[in-house]
Amino acid sequence: xxxxxxxxxxxxxxxxxxxxxxxxxxxxxxxxxxxxxxxxxxxxxxxxxxxxxxxxxxxxxxxxxxxxxxxxxxxxxxxxxxxxxxxxxxxxxxxxxxxxxxxxxxxxxxxxxxxxxxxxxxxxxxxxxxxxxxxxxxxxxxxxxxxxxxxxxxxxxxxxxxxxxxxxxxxxxxxxxxxxxxxxxxxxxxxxxxxxxxxxxxxxxxxxxxxxxxxxxxxxxxxxxxxxxxxxxxxxxxxxxxxxxxxxxxxxxxxxxxxxxxxxxxxxxxxxxxxxxxxxxxxxxxxxxxxxxxxxxxxxxxxxxxxxxxxxxxxxxxxxxxxxxxxxxxxxxxxxxxxxxxxxxxxxxxxxxxxxxxxxxxxxxxxxxxxxxxxxxxxxxxxxxxxxxxxxxxxxxxxxxxxxxxxxxxxxxxxxxxxxxxxxxxxxxxxxxxxxxxxxxxxxxxxxxxxxxxxxxxxxxxxxxxxxxxxxxxxxxxxxxxxxxxxxxxxxxxxxxxxxxxxxxxxxxxxxxxxxxxxx
Amino acid sequence: xxxxxxxxxxxxxxxxxxxxxxxxxxxxxxxxxxxxxxxxxxxxxxxxxxxxxxxxxxxxxxxxxxxxxxxxxxxxxxxxxxxxxxxxxxxxxxxxxxxxxxxxxxxxxxxxxxxxxxxxxxxxxxxxxxxxxxxxxxxxxxxxxxxxxxxxxxxxxxxxxxxxxxxxxxxxxxxxxxxxxxxxxxxxxxxxxxxxxxxxxxxxxxxxxxxxxxxxxxxx
Lengths: 520, 220
Prior knowledge:
By secondary structure, chain A is α/β, with parallel strands linked by helices. Chain A has helices spanning about 5-20, 30-40, 55-70, 110-120, 140-155, 195-205, 225-235, 250-265, 285-290, 295-305, 310-325, 345-355, 365-375, 395-410, 420-445, 460-475, 485-505; strands at about 45-50, 75, 85, 85-90, 100-105, 125-130, 160, 165-170, 185-190, 210-215, 240-245, 270, 305-310, 325-330, 335, 385-390, 415-420, 450-455, 480, 515. In chain A, the strands form 5 sheets. In chain A, strands 8-10-9-11-12-13 form a 6-stranded mixed β-sheet, with helices on both faces. Chain A has a 5-stranded parallel β-sheet with strand order 2-1-5-6-7, sandwiched between helices. Chain A has a 5-stranded parallel β-sheet with strand order 16-15-17-18-19, with helices on both faces. The longest helix of chain A has 26 residues, at about 420-445. Chain B has helices at about 10-20, 35-45, 70-90, 130-135, 150-155, 160-165, 175-190, and strands at about 30, 45-50, 65-70, 95-100, 110-115, 120-130, 140-145, 195-205, 210, 215-220. Helices cover about 35% and strands about 30% of the residues of chain B. In chain B, strands 5, 6, 7, 8, 9 and 10 form a 6-stranded antiparallel β-sheet that branches. Chain B has a 4-stranded antiparallel β-sheet with strand order 1-4-2-3, with helices on one face. In chain B, strand 8 and strand 9 form a beta hairpin.
């Protein structure tokens, strides 16, 4: 992390300009696609550190790949030989008969240099080290070993992922994380410095129907790091939106420039871990004493045009909204509560949640309100915004649907957030009515351009709620478990789109999953 | 008291900044009481006197600053008092003299500074000046180089932004002048990588201009 002088920094930036900015017209960072192809689409994988009948990580990796149905050959490697999942365990990487693109390594760190020699001989393209115990643990010795690994890898033409990481997740190529679910292949890519966060992001995402194109955990990132993988995902035609969990960087200038370029072409949502570490060295200026690492990261992300989030939940919420929503107009939100009953307080607090998280909650037009009054009556309704439509319970579902339709059509409204509490709806409408209501939401979402967002708060009917959530998610409706989280995600998406709106109209490579309205 | 020769004096710092086109209040070094008097007369009263020494970082704390000196007699007395109280506070300090500058009319006070981040290199900071910066930490940062857009964002980002816009009948500060100053500081820092830290504190933000009243540059 040695600091670079300004002249070096300038050179680095100019170099960056030469290699990337000038190559506009073709895809940004296009060269990364070929460079990292063997990592995300390996033809064959060897797992070093596997043994018959043990639950060592290497063996688990073999099980994971075989169970997921990785379409190429999987070669277990382990000194004691034997068989695992019907596969012969080779005592040495060099003894594998076929070509090996990608190697997953789970052996003690004393043996990694020798292994890299084997990889070079075998013409391996990339090695992922699950093995830990390097610079993250023992600063000086670990750092030295990493330097030696890097040197060997460079000489042998091998790329390194890690060490101390869980590597690649690519559902399209049927590669899950270690012991992870495969999930469906989709349009959300992510990078993570931490293996634990990467795994959790994959599982919580899959549970919410976030479909990933690729995920990567790069650990200590001694060779390929966040910048490389962000550049790859920016170029990857399968990826529309990118998430990242980062803790630190060995090359801040490159990371800053990369994020700036990547965020120009695809929404980039970043969660920075370790924000609260004690501030920098004793400083002699006010500026120095105030410039904590967390504050600088936040400023860097904002300056580069990325979206900063502060938790795993906010990261998945924001990725979900980018995946689900195709048309975006702005952050003027209508809030609809009390679909059957209990709408007053909930609507008021939902309004607070939206306003406090930066959304605008404008009054509906007088015409909309007049229509709503005709439809629902004055008593027991709130018709300004938030809207309490609970009086529709006495007039039937068509009235409820008409009311929601009216609110959605209002010209002041860009996005509709519906608070749906099935603890209230089920007793009044039963499962059949509940299905009908949600069928209407899905149709409404399809037939017009304003995002329909559903908030399903947890309660006493969890199985039914989870089932409903899956159904709505499958119909491209973003679902959240609280209005706060929904509002925050809407705000984040809107921030990104406002910032990049001007470029959308004239940059050809700017193909968002979200279509930005050009007239505002 | 700090060890270093690396801290430029206010006079040196401002000279540097002035050459880079960053507006600073005119400041001259007086090596004697007599020089202080003649410079004061030349500049016009009221003036401000400050201790000028590489070894004194906290000028105010050691009694090294006198504001609003309205005539020759006050300047003469202030000169002696500054020198003697700094001698008391920092017996080993090498004193070059006292800086003299015209007393600037009051305005909204802001701070513009630079420090180096171990990961991202030079970073600029903007915030409301004076006590507010220390207590409320209402500041914003951007990585150098700072573009005009970045400068605009960092001014609007602070909570105290309405104060700059003119609060309760106060005159508004010129936001374009502040933006320009921030961009100039960014360019200055880029051209001078040997600068380790920098504070323009305070900068007086007037309705038509922004001027650095005090400045400190720390070299590597």
